[in-house]
Specification:
With 458 residues, this protein is an alpha/beta fold. It has three domains: 3-42; 72-278, Rossmann fold; 284-457, Ribosomal Protein S5, domain 2, CATH 3.30.230.10. The protein has 13 helices and 23 strands. The strands form five sheets. It has a nine-stranded mixed β-sheet with strand order 8-7-9-10-6-11-12-13-14, sandwiched between helices. α9 (333-347) links the parallel β17 and β18. Bound molecules: thymidine-5'-diphosphate and magnesium ion. Magnesium ion (MG) is lined by residues 105-106, 129, 175. Magnesium ion binds at residues 105-106, 129, 175.
Length: 458
């Protein structure tokens, strides 16, 4: 019987402590230490094991002598996913995909598998959550019937390893990392040490066999992938699936990508036939916009390299409360408080006796300061009860003195606005001056201050 020892590992940062403490000494988080029991190898065995692991035996190479393999990226055939991955799946890459339960991770991955199998690849879909029959049912629902797609319902990692090495698939899916376990580790599936061990084993298999792998990760209630933070450092790509369960849009975002740029956004819609790509999200996001209503402005945001138009809405209504209500959906509440103060002080828009509600339509989250001007204009439009023209789009950062500051990548935003038929664009003066080739038929109004912006619009 091998000896065991208990260690307490932090679920947030992976810090290990020999005894339980309430606050992690590593990251300062409260109540994140979890017990995990590991087998202690016997002394002789440890020495032997060390001798048997001499590394890969690789010698250092000169950078210029390393062969380049540029063709190793395989497009999945799902354009929105390829955009987020930076062109496709990289051979031997380990990709972690996180998101709330029911958001559509398994659905999307099964569709990806089917697409790749359709291209003649050998695919293995491993599920520790669903039985093979359940997967079959889902596949039937998605109208998937392709050869070359293997399904395995298994959660013992050693068995998974054997299958992976036998079958040598081009692409494999592991759904989910929290259900995989190694029986020789005494801690429960989903615990820090199990997840860490499982991930490093899968990583090793990927690098050794060249199999590319998608791994599903559950998220905790504050939205991070459950397990040690280190998990995200180990893998090559981390994708997050977001979106309201009520709304059928799903946003796929890369937060880490060793093979491409991050913050790229893919837009999907959950339908009765699985995930469908939304090829033209700006159009889609504006499709329900009420024309001629006050309190609505169009803003062109930037998600990674993708310009995205959205409807920024505000409602100001007389308040009967001592401290008027401010309710913000899709923007930062602190930023809104600042913008209301600037509106009041620098542009004479009184909101001290108004309840103000802010909403960004489509479930989008505006984090860029470039959205400031659009938010201010929406509030002013509601206060005055005057609609902003339906051909107008607005962008700019608002400073504390009411000055309008430049926004990054204005050309891209202007082009997207023009593409969707917006003919009057209010932009920071400096951006207007620098604009290389403004699209034809579009009036660009450069403004210096908030007051000026409001006076050209109303
Ligand atoms: P699922 O992919 O199982 O989510 P996850 O793996 O992220 O937990 O998605 C399940 C939800 O999606 C479920 O509520 C049913 C819904 N769904 C559809 O709307 N259409 C479909 O074609 C499928 C397969 C699922
Ligand atoms: Mg699932």
């Amino acid at each position: 019987m091998a000896k065991t020892k208990s260690v307490y590992a932090c679920t947030a940062c992976g810090y290990e402590s020999p005894r339980w403490v309430g606050r992690c000494p590593g990251c300062g988080a409260w109540n994140t230490l979890e017990e995990s029991v590991t087998a202690v190898p016997e002394k002789g065995a440890a020495k032997l094991a060390a001798n048997q692991r001499p590394g890969t035996g690789a010698a250092p190479l000169l950078l210029e002598e390393i062969p380049e393999d540029t063709a190793l990226r395989t497009p999945t055939g799902i354009s929105e996913l390829d955009r987020v991955l930076g062109g496709g799946i990289v051979e031997g890459g380990l990709m972690l995909i996180g998101g709330d339960p029911g958001i559509g991770k398994s659905t999307l991955l099964l569709q990806v598998c089917a697409n790749l199998a359709g291209q003649g690849k050998r695919i293995l879909y491993i599920s520790g959550e669903e039985s093979a029959r359940q997967i079959k049912l889902r596949a039937r629902r998605l109208d998937i019937g392709v050869p070359g797609l293997y399904v395995l319902a298994e959660n013992a990692l050693d068995a998974v390893e054997t299958r992976l090495r036998d079958l040598q698939p081009d692409v494999a899916v592991v759904d989910s990392i929290q259900t995989m376990y190694r029986p020789e580790m005494a801690s429960a599936p989903g615990s820090v040490s199990q997840i860490r061990e499982s991930t490093s084993l899968l990583m090793r298999i990927c690098k050794e066999t060249g199999t590319s792998m998608f791994v599903v990760g559950h998220v905790t209630k504050d939205g991070a992938i459950a397990g040690p933070r280190m998990l995200e450092h180990m893998v090559d790509v981390v994708l997050y699936f977001e979106g309201d369960r009520q709304q059928d849009y799903r946003l796929l975002r890369a937060v880490k990508n060793r093979f491409g740029s991050v913050n790229e956004l893919g837009v999907f819609r959950m339908t009765g036939k699985g995930m469908q790509i939304v090829p033209n999200p700006s159009e889609e996001l504006l499709s329900h916009r009420a024309k001629g209503a006050s309190g609505s402005t169009v803003f062109c945001g930037l998600e990674g390299s993708r310009p995205l138009l959205c409807d920024v809405q505000a409602l100001a209504a007389q308040s009967f409360l001592n401290s008027p209500r401010r309710t913000v959906n899709g923007a930062d509440a602190g930023r809104i408080a600042m913008l209301l103060a600037v509106l009041e002080k620098r542009a004479g828009q009184r909101t001290y006796n108004q309840d103000v509600y802010i909403n960004v339509a489509g479930g989008l989250e505006l984090s860029e300061p470039a959205a400031d001007l659009a938010l201010c204009v929406a509030v002013a439009s509601s206060l005055k009860d005057q609609p902003v023209g339906s051909e107008v789009a607005v962008m700019g950062e608002v400073g504390l003195t009411g000055e309008i500051r430049t926004v990054p990548q204005c050309d891209r935003r202007v082009a997207e606005c023009a593409r969707l038929g917006f003919t009057t664009l209010v932009v920071p003066r400096e951006n207007a001056r620098r604009l290389s080739n403004p699209p034809e038929g579009v009036r660009i109004l450069g403004v210096d201050t908030l007051l000026q912006a409001l006076s050209v619009l109303f």
